[in-house]
Specification:
This protein is α/β, with parallel strands linked by helices and 244 residues long. It has two domains: 68 residues, Ubiquitin-like (UB roll); 116 residues, Rossmann fold. The chain is 37% helix and 24% strand. The strands form two sheets. Strands 6-5-4-7-8-9-10-11-12 form a nine-stranded mixed β-sheet. A three-stranded mixed β-sheet has the order 1-3-2. A hairpin with a 4-residue loop joins β9 and β10. It starts with a helix and ends with a helix.
Length: 244
């Protein structure tokens, strides 16, 4: 009987000792919170304010999932990983979103199609401006990339790209030229127009204000006010001058 009591007493003491250790470990404060990443837009104060209420606890009491979610919800955070580092630190790795284009008036979109809502859009005024239907930014970006490639072949640069709710396109170049396209075969019609630019010549191309490509077999042109009159017969039949 005495031997049995002795065993029980030892187990009780061992359990008590384990409980004390657990309490000490849980109450051990977090001394270091290390944030790793290359930041251009993410503010240190924003990260600090998100973390402070979650790391003012014991080392084992800190909720890693809550920390990850709090940092991940910040405007400029693309992804975040969090881990404990014994005995008193937490390491946080953050990947920042990179703005790709302006989306509508006050938003941005990154290369993955994620919408970013910055405090101010002014610092990003040099980015290409894109308009599109709600929740369709990924599809619109894919279309825009094809347009940029087609324009680049003619040394033209895109400034604005719009897709309305009926999926008709409007393009604006850095030169100020606007190109209107319908809802069908837009890229094909654009490429057809671009093939005619060499025949027009650079001076005439620079004088174009608006090109309407919503015609099955051609296009309409509106010229800038200062543009000189165009001799279309000479363009259509360049040999006529020589023959005359």
């Amino acid at each position: 009987m005495q031997g049995t009591k002795l065993v029980v007493a030892v187990l009780v003491l061992a359990g008590l000792s384990f409980g004390i250790k657990q309490h000490v470990l849980k109450s051990k404060p977090i001394k270091y919170v290390r944030t790793e990443g290359s930041f251009q837009y993410l503010g240190k104060e924003d990260v600090k304010n998100a973390l402070l209420p979650l790391v003012s606890v014991g080392f084992f009491d800190a909720d890693m999932q809550a920390i990850q979610q709090a940092v991940g919800n910040l405007t400029w955070v693309e992804s975040v990983t969090v881990k404990r580092v014994w005995p008193d630190a937490i390491d946080i790795k953050v990947r920042e979103k990179k703005p790709y284009v302006r989306w509508r008036k006050n938003s941005l979109v990154d290369t993955k199609g994620q919408i970013i809502e910055p405090k101010s859009i002014e610092p990003f005024s040099s980015l290409l401006l894109v308009y599109g239907p709600d929740q369709q930014q990924v599809k619109v970006l894919e279309i825009m990339k094809g347009v940029k490639t087609a324009l680049a072949d003619k040394a033209l640069e895109l400034a604005e790209f719009s897709v309305n709710d009926r999926w008709a396109w409007k393009i604006k170049l850095t030169t100020g030229m606007e190109i209107l396209l319908g809802r069908q075969e837009q890229l094909k019609n654009l490429q057809r127009f671009l093939k005619t630019l060499d025949a027009l010549g650079q001076e005439r191309v620079d004088a174009i204000a608006v090109v309407d490509l919503r015609y099955p077999n051609g296009y309409a042109v509106s010229w800038k006010p200062e543009a000189e009159p165009i001799d279309w017969k000479a363009i259509a039949n360049p040999q006529s001058k020589t023959d005359g």
